[in-house]
Amino acid sequence: MSFDFPAYVQRCRERADSAIAKALAKSQCPQKRLLEAMSYSATNGGKRVRPLLVMAGAEACGNSASPTVDSAAAAIEMMHAYSLVHDDLPAMDDDKLRRGLPTCHIAFDEATAILAGDALQSQAFSELAELPNCPDKIKLRLIQELASAAGAAGMVAGQAIDLASVNQRISLAQLEQMHQLKTGRIIRAAIRMGAIASGRSQASQLRALDDYADAIGLAFQVQDDILDVTADTATLGKQQGADEELNKPTYVSLLGLEAAKDKAEQLRQDAHQALQEFGPEALALRALADYIVQRAH
Question: Closest by alpha carbon to 58, among 198, 187, 204, 186?
């Protein structure tokens, strides 16, 4: 069955951008510069992969039209934006370019960037806590999914391991653990939040979606590592070769370029295998698995 993935991505992006704009407006931030930094970080560029996963996860479970899905998509993207703002700081990766634009601490200043990241994280949880016409049980499940994925057992732990691994020799298993936490947990949460927000998810579906998420989460990072070597700065929208310059372990440095490409392809196949129990309602998830491995930036 043919599927117009670019058109689907555009529709999801428009929905997500609208939901993010509404969420930022609800923040009622009285400090103009801080609000500008929040908006700059959350809305300028980006692929919107995580909001798309929320919407596609809901669609796979039979209900992607609910406003709760859009709010969950906005929440996950604000959490992602916060992580990028902090990741780019001088005390972390010290990046100057993000999504083809100056990073937040360069465009504004370091203190404002820290506060903008803090505010985006808080607003993500506020968006879920204040969902209208949504049962409290669903709200709590969504909040728990995001908190668990973003905190000390998930993304933050992965970032800590990443920083501690600079100039260190680590094994492939340790590298995979780091990225399962740093990138994979948020990707898994995005799909699960979409399924939960649909109000129709079954336990077997969530298990299958977890397996899918684990595969594409690692595939996303493997492909990022490949692109850091093979693409140029203009295409990437961030500094090419940054990982090598920082002497950070990557799939390419541990496996070599060709073996890293083989691993990405195997993970793509694993993602498709995980979706066997789904029919055409999971076309978007299947197309996304292909896109993650075939993308050029």
Answer: 198
Chain centre distance of CA 54: 10
User: What are φ and ψ of residue 25, in 5° steps?
Assistant: -65, -35
Give the C-alpha separation, 137 to 118, whole Å.
26
Specify the 3-state DSSP secondary structure of 98. Answer: strand
Helix (H) or strand (E) holding 97: strand 97-98
Residue of 250, 247, 189 lying closest to 225 (CA atoms): 250
How far is it, in rounded angstroms, from Cα 130 to Cα 162?
34
Taking the alpha carbons of 24, 26, 27, 32 in that order, is the dihedral positive or negative?
positive
| Burial classification of residue 170, based on how many CB atoms lie within 10 Å of its CB (0-12 exposed, 13-18 middle, 19 or more buried) | middle
Rounded Cα distance, 73 and 154, in Å: 19
H or E element, residue 101: strand 101-102
Do 86 and 111 meet the contact criterion of CB atoms below 8 Å apart?
no
Number of DSSP helices (H) and strands (E) in the chain, helices first: 16, 2
Q: For residue range 206-250, what is the model confidence (pLDDT) as tens digits?
A: 999 999 999 999 999 999 999 988 867 665 555 555 655 556 789
Q: What is the pLDDT of residues 167-188, one digit of tens each?
A: 888 899 999 999 999 999 999 9
Tens of pLDDT, residue by residue over 19-48, are 999 999 999 999 999 999 999 999 988 889
- What gap in Å lies between CA 66 and CA 61, rounded to an integer? 12
Residue type, 61: C
